[in-house]
Design goal:
The complex is a heterodimer of chains A (143) and B (254). Chain A is α/β, with parallel strands linked by helices. In chain A, 37% of the residues lie in helices and 18% in strands. Chain A has one domain: Rossmann fold (3-Layer(aba) Sandwich). A five-stranded mixed β-sheet of chain B has the order 2-4-5-7-6, covered by helices on one side. Chain B has a two-stranded antiparallel sheet with strand order 1-3. The chains are: A alpha/beta (143), B alpha+beta (254).
């Protein structure tokens, strides 16, 4: 069966988190391939390279983005991403994936139109299913 | 973080006198510290728990235990504890949020909010056969935060249902009136009641429950109290065992 999304970028400064997330994403067949980044600057460099050199097919369909990262945080990364005019955000969905349950972070993510979802860690099969169906998963223990 | 705007809101000088300015400054410092503490909890404290939880999720699915039931059971216990810890962090975050954030007050109509609450609790109300009576003609509403009113109505009505007596028909009476500078919302039931001699100081505490037969984490009333007091109001409680309980929630008029 063909997956709806082909490629995902995981951007999180914690490599264990990336490894675990890659495992669960591939196991649940959300995408065909995953690329991990512990430094958002490297992800930006790769995205720019893909736009310049490679075909549009190699561009990620999904970007999972952490918020708190040392060198460049998730918000700064987003601002950089938005400044690249060639990116079609209808085809490349940005998902905030943070452990933060601070309402301020959630509200801020709503203010960015390019963010398709705010997901609280940990990533679970249920939350992946929501991404597949393009629904917003429940935030943490909310009922 | 976009907390700067919220902090700023609290530092606005009212221009009445210097004492008041000092008080405002002090409040700003306190709420700043609360905000920082709240961020500490919502992110830095939660972060390692989340990692533990996701690692545990993977171990579970990888079937490393090969039928070793003792090891599996110990592992499940650790998993449960991690889950509980995360829930506590979540509750703590909710409470800190109430104290550190400046909510916008609006005129809230009691009858409308009661109707919304009854819709939410439809099943519980029907199954318990509870009779709800209300009378808001003396004070139709209060100047407060609508989410807080919804939360307290839901919490107090569902509590009345949970802790009802099975020896009589449950009657919940809700009314409102003005008292001095406050508007009072009163919620009364004829349920099991709480022994206030034993538990008065614990009713609004965190993680306290008084009846073993019902499930609950015991955070709801604490949160209701925090929300009420953060707006300058207060909650009073009267109760008699096997007669019933009355909660009075006071909202400041100004």
């Amino acid at each position: 069966m063909m997956n709806q999304f082909k490629k995902a970028f995981l951007i999180d400064d914690d490599s264990i988190t990336n490894i675990l997330n890659e495992k669960i994403i591939l196991k649940n067949q959300l995408v065909d391939s995953v690329q991990q980044f512990t430094n958002p600057l490297e992800a930006l460099r790769d995205l720019r390279y893909l736009l310049r050199e490679a075909s549009a097919l190699d561009f990620p369909d999904l970007i999972f983005l952490d918020i708190n990262m040392p060198e460049m945080d998730g918000w700064k990364f987003l601002d950089e991403l938005l400044s690249i005019s060639q990116i079609d955000f209808n085809k490349c969905k940005v998902i905030m994936l943070s452990s933060s349950i601070d309402i301020a972070d959630i509200q801020k993510s709503i203010s960015y139109s390019v963010i398709s979802k705010y997901i609280t860690k940990p990533l679970t099969p249920d939350k992946l299913e929501c991404i597949r169906k393009e629904e917003q998963p429940l935030l943490h223990f909310e009922t | 973080m976009n907390n700067a705007s919220q902090v700023k809101k609290k530092t606005v000088y009212t221009g009445v006198n210097s004492n008041e300015k000092q008080l405002t400054d002090k409040n700003t410092i306190v709420s700043n510290e609360l905000l920082q503490f709240s961020q500490l909890v919502s992110h830095y404290l939660r972060s390692p728990i989340v990692k533990i939880k996701s690692i545990m999720n993977h171990i579970k699915t990888d079937e490393v235990f090969n039928g070793n039931e003792a090891a599996q059971s110990l592992f499940d216990h650790v998993s449960d504890e991690a889950e509980k810890l995360d829930e506590i962090i979540y509750d703590l975050n909710k409470i800190l949020e109430v104290y550190s954030k400046h909510e916008l007050k609006k005129y809230v109509n009691f009858k409308k909010k009661l109707a919304e609450t009854c819709a939410l609790l439809e099943n519980e109300i029907r199954e318990s056969g509870a009779i709800l009576r209300f009378e808001f003609s003396d004070a139709r509403g209060a100047f407060t935060v609508k989410e807080y009113v919804l939360h307290l109505l839901r919490k107090l009505i569902s509590n009345a249902i949970k802790y009802r007596s099975h020896n009589r028909q449950l009657i919940i009476t809700i009314n409102s009136f003005d008292e001095g500078n406050f508007t009072c919302l009163m919620i009364n039931d004829n349920g099991l009641g709480i022994d206030l001699k034993k538990y008065r100081t614990k009713v609004f505490g965190l993680y306290n429950r008084f009846h073993d037969h019902v499930k609950g984490k015991g955070t709801g009333l604490h949160l209701v109290k925090a929300e009420t007091e953060s707006l300058g109001g207060n909650i009073q409680l009267e109760s008699e065992v096997d007669v019933g309980t009355t909660f009075k929630i006071y909202f400041p008029k100004f």
